[in-house]
């Protein structure tokens, strides 16, 4: 029952993504769907892998590190999507293929490496609340320049979370506009990580390339915080 529920939800979300992409005149294959598995047991991540999921997301270092180690034989790509403390940065680099939450100069410095390169997004804060994570739009270009000048980081683009209690589409449109500004600094950084369970349709319409979808696929989180 639980497994079939998971397969059904995954199929249904994938079908919606493909429908919306086609309605928007976009190729569904250009979208990467990351299933956010925070608070879910490693066994559920393994089920997702058997259903063909390759990209999974976590927002807490200890949980992500433990699951990535346990499930290493599955060859999944781990995306780190949560707020990241600078002192944990080096450890997250070891298992994450992509870090979506680069949001301040100290974290950029902590992620520096002369040996290996990690893909990353700069997260933009679309609210006035610093606790939500992300760089304020006024400081975006300076931070992107800092990333571009730092060895070991390959910038894919911008990440954002739509503000609570506001329509998502204008927020995502704002990210798309900000993205045009950073392309002058890093021309390859044209990806947009935006869109969650309740707003992935709006995100696709505004050009999202990386969707971060949790509960619509996994079901309710056991310990939703
Ligand atoms: C939890 C989380 C998601 C997924 O949220 P859902 O509403 O469950 O789809 C996406 N992005 C980030 C940063 C998250 O923390």
UniProtKB/TrEMBL annotation:
<dbReference type="InterPro" id="IPR029066">
    <property type="entry name" value="PLP-binding_barrel"/>
</dbReference>
<dbReference type="InterPro" id="IPR001608">
    <property type="entry name" value="Ala_racemase_N"/>
</dbReference>
<dbReference type="Pfam" id="PF01168">
    <property type="entry name" value="Ala_racemase_N"/>
</dbReference>
<protein>
    <recommendedName>
        <fullName>Pyridoxal phosphate homeostasis protein</fullName>
    </recommendedName>
</protein>
<dbReference type="InterPro" id="IPR011078">
    <property type="entry name" value="PyrdxlP_homeostasis"/>
</dbReference>
<feature type="modified residue" description="N6-(pyridoxal phosphate)lysine">
    <location>
        <position position="38"/>
    </location>
</feature>
<comment type="similarity">
    <text>Belongs to the pyridoxal phosphate-binding protein YggS/PROSC family.</text>
</comment>
<comment type="function">
    <text>Pyridoxal 5'-phosphate (PLP)-binding protein, which is involved in PLP homeostasis.</text>
</comment>
<keyword id="KW-0663">Pyridoxal phosphate</keyword>
<feature type="domain" description="Alanine racemase N-terminal">
    <location>
        <begin position="42"/>
        <end position="222"/>
    </location>
</feature>
């Amino acid at each position: 029952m639980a497994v079939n529920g998971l397969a059904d939800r995954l199929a249904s979300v994938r079908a919606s993504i493909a429908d919306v992409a086609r309605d928007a005149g976009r190729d569904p294959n250009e979208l990467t769907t990351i299933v956010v598995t925070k608070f879910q047991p490693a066994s559920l991540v393994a089920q997702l892998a058997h259903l063909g999921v390759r990209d999974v997301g976590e927002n807490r270092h200890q949980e992500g590190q433990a699951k990535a180690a346990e499930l290493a034989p599955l060859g999944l790509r781990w995306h780190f999507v949560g707020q990241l403390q600078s002192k944990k940065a080096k450890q997250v680099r070891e298992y994450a293929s992509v870090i979506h939450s680069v949001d301040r100069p100290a974290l950029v410095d902590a992620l520096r490496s002369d040996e290996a390169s990690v893909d990353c997004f700069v997260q933009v804060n679309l609210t006035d609340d610093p606790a939500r994570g992300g760089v304020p739009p006024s400081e975006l270009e300076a931070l992107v320049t800092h990333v571009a000048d730092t060895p070991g980081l390959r910038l894919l683009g911008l990440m954002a979370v739509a503000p609570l209690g506001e329509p998502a589409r204008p927020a995502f449109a704002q990210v798309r506009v900000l993205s045009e500004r950073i392309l002058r600094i890093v021309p390859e950084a044209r990806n947009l990580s935006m869109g969650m369970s309740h707003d992935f349709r709006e995100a696709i319409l505004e050009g999202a390339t990386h969707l971060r979808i949790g509960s619509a696929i996994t079901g309710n989180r056991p310990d939703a915080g």
